[in-house]
Specification:
Length: 77
């Protein structure tokens, strides 16, 4: 059982939206598999998901759009 790094509360699997503010662009990734603390609401990602998010952000920040909306399942490779 995973526990929250902030408060040691229980983590529950949920899909959340990840928002990255990079340079002049805001990237919003919807439907990210994540773990949310049932006590304090802290969101954490597995190692694999964190790597995917990093890749997605690196790819999209070159797209030259001000706001990019993507769905995790559409862009995760
Ligand atoms: Zn917590």
């Amino acid at each position: 059982m995973n526990e929250c790094i902030m408060c040691k509360g229980n983590l529950v699997d949920r899909y959340t939206n990840f928002v990255a503010d990079v340079d002049n662009c805001i990237i919003i990734v919807k439907g990210v598999p994540s773990q949310v603390c049932s006590q304090c609401g802290e969101v954490s990602y597995s190692h694999e998901v964190a790597l995917q998010l990093e890749k997605i952000v690196n790819k999209l920040k070159n797209a030259m759009t001000e706001i990019a909306f993507v769905h995790y399942n559409d862009v995760a490779a």
